[in-house]
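Quick log. Single chain, no ligands specified.
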Amino acid sequence: MGMSTNVIGIRSGNDSEYKKHSKVLRACLDAGIEKLPRETAEYFGEESPYEGLFEEVLEVTIPKTRWDDRDMCEGYEIKVSDIPSGVETIRFYNSY
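-> predicted structure:
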């Protein structure tokens, strides 16, 4: 079984756009509405509401480059200037 290392950025949930669309998403979930309004669907990138959208939209791809020193060390390099706007946290995680 192999292991892989991943890197994601996490935006703040305090952004005004996020708050606005989260309220719409919550209302749709609570009311049992099966299709999000157009603007909110575009924001979340999904037409159907589900709980996971609250967190998924906050996760963004962090551009990274594979790095190794040829002496049994390897990892990723991230250029600070390439971090997307609004990212407050960078999460490194391993998965099996």
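The helical segments are 16-31, 38-44, 53-56.
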